Amino acid sequence: MADEQQYNPSDALLAEVSIKLRDIEEKQNIIKDRVLLIGENLIAEKEDSDSQITELKSSIAGLNDEIKRVKLALERIIDDSNNYVRKNEFQVLQRQFEMFQPLELARMKDVESMINKALKK
């Protein structure tokens, strides 16, 4: 029995190697779990990024359509503005109208009636 309880350095070495091996396996499992978690997080972030990119693309497409409509409207307004009278042109026409004053012109009947009234007096 004394031989069985005798200290064997190879057993101690095997025990130490076994403990270190177990520690390495635990560290490997922890690293594996972390890598899986990081992979899941990356996949989730990629999906979020893809959905945001899709939303931005549709938003940009809508803005481009809206910009085209605004450009067309501006072109129509510019074309129409060429047909409008400018302020100084309107003032010239207004002065000519005031000089002419068609409502104050006398008709032939009015002139004849004025002459008849003047002759009667």
Describe the secondary-structure layout:
Blueprint: H1 9-81, H2 87-100, H3 108-120
What's the gist of this structure?
The chain is built from three helices and no strands. It is mainly alpha-helical.
Describe the structure.
This protein is an all-alpha fold. It has one domain (9-120). Helix content is 83%, strand content 0%. It has three helices and no strands. It has helices spanning 9-81, 87-100, 108-120. The longest helix is centred in the middle third of the chain and has 73 residues, at 9-81. The N and C termini lie far apart (171 Å). 0% of the residues are buried.
SSE string: HHH
Number of strands: 0
Categorize the overall geometry: rod-shaped
Give the percentage of residues in beta strands.
under 5%
Q: Radius of gyration, Cα only, in angstroms?
A: 51 Å
Q: How many distinct helices?
A: 3
How far is the first residue's CA from the last residue's CA? 171 Å
Question: What labels describe this entry?
Answer:
121 residues, mainly alpha, single chain
